[in-house]
Amino acid sequence: MDAELAVALEDVGFEYGRGLDAVVDRATFDVRYGVATCLYGPSGSGKSTLLALIGRLVQPTRGRVGWHPRHAGESAPRFAWVTQAANLVPSLTVVENVALGPLARSGSVAGSYARAESAIAAVGLLGLERRPVTAVSGGQMQRVAIARALASDADVLLADEPTANLDASAAAVVLEAIGLAVEAGAAVVVASHDAAVLELASSRIEVRGGSCRVVG
Ligand SMILES: Nc1ncnc2c1ncn2[C@@H]1O[C@H](COP(=O)(O)OP(=O)(O)OP(=O)(O)O)[C@@H](O)[C@H]1O
């Protein structure tokens, strides 16, 4: 049986301004819960733009993007982002950054910190919880951003080149953490050049000049 639908793109086109060339052209594919989808293709082919369309940051100029909530009673899925610039709050510690999402949702400080600590463990950063986030390396910041996404318990996790700044062992930890989110039932979409990410994904979309081909 197919996994449940999270986001469906139907014949989607997008350009960044009137009169500019389309950067996404007739994209049609599904993103499903409990599945890792990898968008891969050369630099500038439109992968980040597709993530922005999936995550509702921009609206298509043609075609349709449909969002399907994971839980009854919700109007749309909840998204978490892992972007190339980690976008952490510089004045907070590692654990405070990761706890922000659960804290905003539940209001429970103890529960949110427990959740944050287990996400920090999942990305291999135990021991760094109380460090100011500005006092960790760039690759560690990337892992903090992934922990933050895991702790937020989002329905759809969107990651743009999450292993780009990491060495092989840190990248392996990140891939394991992404695998945990998939196991927990999230729809995960990763834009990446990394062959290991492609291997992890069970749905692969090749992006070339804004056109998408579902590879399997
Ligand atoms: N804000 C913007 N305004 C105008 N054009 C843009 C904007 N953002 C991206 N583009 C253009 O859209 C095209 C697709 O860019 P996008 O960032 O989606 O590609 P990508 O495949 O993610 O690239 P990379 O792998 O280098 O991150 C590129 O030609 C890029 O120059």
UniProtKB/TrEMBL annotation:
Claim: Cell inner membrane is one of the keywords in the record: no
PROSITE patterns found in the cross-reference section: ABC_TRANSPORTER_1 (PS00211), ABC_TRANSPORTER_2 (PS50893)
GO MF terms held by the record: ATP binding; ATP hydrolysis activity; transmembrane transporter activity
Pfam families xref list: ABC_tran (PF00005)
SMART domains cross-referenced by the UniProt entry: AAA
Segments forming domain ABC transporter: 7-216
Keyword Membrane on entry: no
PANTHER family registered for this protein in UniProt: FE(3+) IONS IMPORT ATP-BINDING PROTEIN FBPC (PTHR24220:SF684), IMPORT ATP-BINDING PROTEIN (PTHR24220)
Identification of the protein by name: Putative ABC transport system ATP-binding protein/lipoprotein-releasing system ATP-binding protein
